[in-house]
Amino acid sequence: TSIGTAVGSSGFAAIDYWPTTSQQRTVAAFADGAIRKDNAEGTFSAALVSGLTTTGWSPMFVKGGSELAGNAQKLFHTDRVNAVRVLAADGTTMTAISRPPAEWNGANQPYCLAAHDGYLWGGLGHRIYRSSITDHEDFLSFPWQKTIYSGIGEYIVAMLSYKGFLVCWKFPEGVFVLDTRDPSDTRWTTAQVGQAGTPGPLTAAKLEDDLLWVDPGGGWHLISATEASGSVRATDISAKKLGDFMRTRVNISQLATAQLVYHSQKGTAMLACNQAGLTTKAVRVTLDVLDAKGIGEKWTYSDRDRNEALYMRKETGREIPAMIDANGLLWELDRENRSADG
Q1: Can you give the C-alpha Rg of the chain in angstroms?
Q2: CB atoms within 10 A of CB 293
Q3: What DSSP state is assigned to residue 145?
Q4: I need a labelling partner for 256 at 20 to 30 A (CA). Which of 51, 53, 61, 282 fits?
Q5: What CA–CA distance (Å, rounded) separates 110 from 127?
Q6: Which stretch of 70-84, 144-158, 241-255, 328-342 has the lowest confidence by average pLDDT?
């Protein structure tokens, strides 16, 4: 079901943002280099920022802020080539963060951001950076940085918080965990837990109790916690059933801009990606997660929608998949009405 009005530019990445418990906004990056915020009903107002460089960008959004009582909710944006931006509360502009690390300058910007243990984290090259715990825009007052296995992979491309670990994926190989469970950051350790990396900042997602990611060659992998050791392990879950399916049906070279989301109500993980030979994002590959441990993985392939910006959106108390298409029109999926514009 489509809602709101089209803006005339293709979506690129989007997030369901709640500046307060009663205000819902979709904030999205569009192919024309603008970031826009909707009115909760799919109609996007004037740009929060415009004129962003789109060559080589890969936009992503991360929720932060509310560091102290009374502080505003904040939404952060990074895309590799433009300065990290922040939207405070339900504001009308996204401004550059106030105190970034010195290395984040010009077109040298983090590939990914993550909220973990009360901090905002950024990944640039082989290095991760941690903000102040009382100000997610401040990476200078209490600077903390760490190099993650510089001899493996080319750069850190994705990060997620998981059970006391900050999980870092590199392109094209290597997945690592920073164990932050010790109260003293001087005793934090890192370990490599998988060989396959990931191509983009949005090609890894949280499931109920695991992490799922897609590697640059189209393989699907799972990270699970191990109770005995208190650590994590990684496994390949697609090699047996998918074989070379992803490499023949999906444009592997475009996976850096793909989006992987988890629909908890249905227990399915969806990857929005490009069809082989095409630059349009008109494919969704879906994994039925709930049946994976019982009867094995079940996969579904769909090529009917231009899901250029796939994300999860809260509607009537539950999260459902939503997407912004090539014209900038917002669609809600998994609706009782199974028609699309008639």
Answers
A1: 19
A2: 8
A3: E
A4: 51
A5: 10
A6: 328-342
